[in-house]
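Might you be able to review the protein record set out just below?
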Amino acid sequence: VQLVQSGAELRNPGASVKVSCKASGYTFTSYYIDWVRQAPGQGLEWMGRIDPEDGGTKYAPKFQGRVTFTADTSASTAYVELSSLRSEDTAVYYCARTTGSGNDYWGKGTRVTVSS
């Protein structure tokens, strides 16, 4: 199982960013994908999850309305898009495969820096 994420991004405040997570080694539609971020000096923060099978999503309240999860089953790839970026969104963004007992495989993370 591998989750390969896209490369680092630098954005200006107010812009948007889209991070990808390409899955391999398992049936993509059989597991949810969680998105988690870690800001500098902070702990892990759960953003929400997507069910690639039907596109169903769940967002943490803090991110509702500003974050969009999507999945392309033909490419076995999940995406997170964050809009109206602000400096507090500077973080490493991770995707993780989700089982009934937690996250068992993680991507290596994508660093997003928001700075003018």
Remarks:
- The mean pLDDT is 97.
- Residues 66 and 83 are 6 Å apart (CA to CA).
- DSSP finds no helices and eleven strands in the chain.
- The longest strand covers residues 91-99.
